[in-house]
Q: What sequence folds into this?
């Protein structure tokens, strides 16, 4: 009696196994690539969100610099090397910017000011420390944004004669009416596909401020594979013009 049972030969099994291995390998490679792309995009998005939130916080507070609703002299608005008789800018350097304001009264719910700059949030300085954008107050220091490598403050001044100039080391702090802030952030970890050298040229607001001698600053990051993001904005200090 003839046996009609059929089956796979050894060669057929080997071919089928090879085909399955190839298909699984292709699927895994595609999955691995997509995972890496997602990871890098997630790190980039985190960096962008980080720098934007830090800039937003700085911008929101800087607009209040010099706020003095009672228009009176104060006894606690000074900081650093500046002695201020009223709310205003007390630190204006290349890499740090400090100012005071009077927007709280004796009661924390009172928004009319109390003639002093010693309430929480009324005297602050922004700078970089240990890779973070830091907001320093007389009694505490808080990181606002992480993985910040550089910061630059370019001050826009206008004197009583209407002459406009740019400076990173202004003499008369009361002439400052705006500040251009540039912040450079990086991703938390390196990306092997990123360039090993990144160069950033900071913008200069010309010709509106008519100063052709302002130094153009170039930032360069070498020998690493981090991804970077440069964010620049100009903050109008609406209360500073009222001090003149």
A:
């Amino acid at each position: 009696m003839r046996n009609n049972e059929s089956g796979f030969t050894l060669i057929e099994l080997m071919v089928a196994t090879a085909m399955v291995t190839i298909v699984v390998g292709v699927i895994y490679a595609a999955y691995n690539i997509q995972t890496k792309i997602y990871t890098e995009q997630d790190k980039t998005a985190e960096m962008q969100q980080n720098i934007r939130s830090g800039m937003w916080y700085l911008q929101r507070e800087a607009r209040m610099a010099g706020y003095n609703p009672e228009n009176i002299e104060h006894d606690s608005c000074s900081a650093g090397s500046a002695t201020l008789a009223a709310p205003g800018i007390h630190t204006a350097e290349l890499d740090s910017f400090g100012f005071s304001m009077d927007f709280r009264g004796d009661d924390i719910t009172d928004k009319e000011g109390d003639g002093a700059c010693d309430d929480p949030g009324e005297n602050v300085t922004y700078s970089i420390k240990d890779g973070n954008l830091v907001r320093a107050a007389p009694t505490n220091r808080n990181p606002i944004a992480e993985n910040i490598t550089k910061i630059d403050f370019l001050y826009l001044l206008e004197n009583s004669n209407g002459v406009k100039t740019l400076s990173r080391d202004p003499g008369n702090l009361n002439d400052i009416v705006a500040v251009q802030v540039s912040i450079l952030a990086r991703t938390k970890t390196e990306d092997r596909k990123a360039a090993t050298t990144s160069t950033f040229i900071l913008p200069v607001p010309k010709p509106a401020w008519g100063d052709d001698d302002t130094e153009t600053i170039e930032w360069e990051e070498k020998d690493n594979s981090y991804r970077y993001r440069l964010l620049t904005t100009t903050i109008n200090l609406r209360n500073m013009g009222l001090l003149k």
